[in-house]
Amino acid sequence: MEIRQISEDKRAFLPLLLLADEQENMIERYLDRGTLLALYDGGTLRTVAVVTDEGGGVFELKNLATEPDSQRRGYGRAMVEHIAGICRGQGGTRLLVGTGDSPLTIPFYECLGFRKSHRVKNFFTDHYDHPIYDAGQLLVDMVYLAMEL
Questions:
Q1: Were 47 and a residue from 64, 75, 81, 130 both cysteine, which residue would form a disulfide, CB within 3.0 to 4.6 Å?
Q2: How confident is the model over 100-148, as pLDDT tens digits?
Q3: 105, 143 contact by CB (below 8 A)
Q4: What is the CATH architecture assignment of 2-148?
Q5: pLDDT at site 78
Q6: Of residues 65, 124, 116, the one with CA closest to residue 100
C-alpha cells in the first residue's frame, strides 16, 4: 500500500471524489486549496482524500472516497490514520470531518476516534442543487465530528 500526494491534475481524480461529494462545484470549493492524497494498492487506485488546513491547528477532512469494490477492506481507515499523522506533524491539534447524518458514515468515523462536535443546519438542502441521499436517507444537516490530535 502506498499513499501519494497529488499536486498536479487533481481533477483527474474527480470520478472518485464524486462518490463522496456528488456535486462537482462543491468539490471545486476545496480541491485547489486542499491537499489531495491517493492510496494505491497493487498499483491500483483504491482511495482518495482531500484535507485542508483551516488554521489555528485545525485541519478538515473534506472528502474521503474509496472505490466501491475496495470498500470495507481497511483503505479508508489507513488513509484517515495517515492524514492524522500528517496533521500532527504539521502542528495540528484537531481534525474535523463534516458528513451527512448517515448510518454508514457516522459509525465509521466514530470507530476511528472521532466524536460528534456540532451541526450545520440545512447544509445539504441549502448548498446542493438536488436532494442528497446516503443509505436511503435524505441528508439535510452537516454533522461535524472531531478527532483530537
A1: 75
A2: 998 889 999 999 999 999 999 999 999 999 999 988 889 999 999 999 9
A3: no
A4: 3-Layer(aba) Sandwich (3.40)
A5: 98
A6: 124
Instruction: Report, in angstroms and rounded to the nearest whole number, the Rg of the chain calculated over CA atoms.
Output: 14
Model pTM score: 0.94
Could you give phi then psi for residue 120, rounded to 5 degrees?
Answer: -115, 105
Cα gap 38→13, rounded to integer Å: 9
pLDDT tens per residue, range 50-100: 999 999 999 999 999 999 999 999 999 999 999 999 999 999 999 999 999
Distance of alpha carbon 74 from alpha carbon 47, whole angstroms:
10
Torsional class of 91: left (φ above 0), alpha (ψ -120 to 50), beta (otherwise): left
